[in-house]
């Protein structure tokens, strides 16, 4: 069983903020495949099982994302090597992707929570660049919405994450996925 997680914050207030890029990627994947995630308090999030994979949008707010992920991993007995997390990254230029098989938290509270709850840094990631703006404090920046011109660029890369998810669930070797998508778009 594979688990694909998009990180974000629940609620309309956060829907199009930079910190919600993981949610946006899963929303696009779901819409493109005519799927609907269901809200479920048992796992503290929206999720859907499709054959041998699960899509999850934790509703624990970013800083507690690991809580929801741990619950669903335990329930479905999902191995850490079968987990893929999509999230925003301030250290990458806007709409650039960087895929990794493991790593630290990079100052990202959602990733920090996941590491704390699952006990390892060895899970697959899709880091989605949101750039940074030195004129804003980090918290204010990640909770701000994309401008129209930024969103036009972001939407193109969001479509690429659909292909990454498809490759992942179809058991393409992750090194091959990284080689294919680790480049500016």
Annotation keywords:
single chain; 185 residues; alpha/beta; Rossmann fold; 7-stranded mixed beta sheet; 7 strands; 37% helix; globular
Kindly describe this structure.
The protein has 6 helices and 7 strands. With 185 residues, the protein is of the alpha/beta class. It has one domain (2-181): Rossmann fold (3-Layer(aba) Sandwich), CATH 3.40.50. The protein has a 7-stranded mixed beta sheet, sandwiched between helices. A hairpin with a 4-residue loop joins strand 2 (38-40) and strand 3 (45-50). Helix 1 crosses helix 5 and helix 2 runs parallel beside helix 3 (109-118). The longest helix has 22 residues, at 148-169. The mean pLDDT is 96.
| Order of neighbouring strands in the sheet with most strands | 2-3-4-1-5-7-6
Output the CATH class name.
Alpha Beta
Order of helices and strands: EHEEEHEEHEHHH
Measured as a percent range, the helix fraction is 25-40%
How many individual domains? 1
Main sheet, how many strands, which sense, barrel?
7 strands, mixed
Q: What is the subunit organization of this protein?
A: single chain
CATH topology (level 3) name: Rossmann fold
Radius of gyration: 15 Å
- Category by helix and strand content: alpha/beta
Q: How many β strands by DSSP?
A: 7
General shape? globular
CATH architecture: 3-Layer(aba) Sandwich
How many distinct helices?
6
Mean pLDDT: 96
Please identify which CATH superfamily we are dealing with.
Peptidyl-tRNA hydrolase
Low-confidence stretches: none
> How much strand content do the residues show?
15-25%
């Amino acid at each position: 069983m594979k688990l694909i997680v998009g990180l974000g914050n629940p609620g309309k207030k956060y829907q199009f903020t930079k910190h919600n890029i993981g949610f946006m990627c899963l929303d696009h994947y779901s819409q493109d495949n005519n799927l609907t995630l269901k809200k479920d308090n048992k796992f503290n999030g929206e999720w859907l099982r499709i054959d041998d994979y699960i899509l999850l949008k934790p509703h624990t707010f970013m800083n507690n994302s690991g809580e929801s992920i741990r619950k669903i991993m335990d329930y479905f007995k999902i191995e850490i090597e079968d987990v893929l997390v999509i999230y925003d990254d301030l250290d990458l230029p806007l709409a650039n992707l960087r895929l990794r098989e493991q790593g630290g938290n990079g100052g990202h509270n959602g990733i920090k929570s996941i590491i704390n709850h699952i006990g390892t840094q060895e899970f697959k990631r899709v880091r989605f660049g949101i750039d940074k703006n030195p004129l804003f404090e980090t918290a204010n920046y990640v909770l701000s919405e994309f401008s129209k011109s930024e969103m036009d660029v972001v939407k193109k890369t969001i479509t690429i994450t659909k292909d990454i998810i498809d490759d992942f669930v179809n058991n393409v070797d992750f090194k091959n996925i990284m080689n294919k998508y680790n480049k500016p778009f």
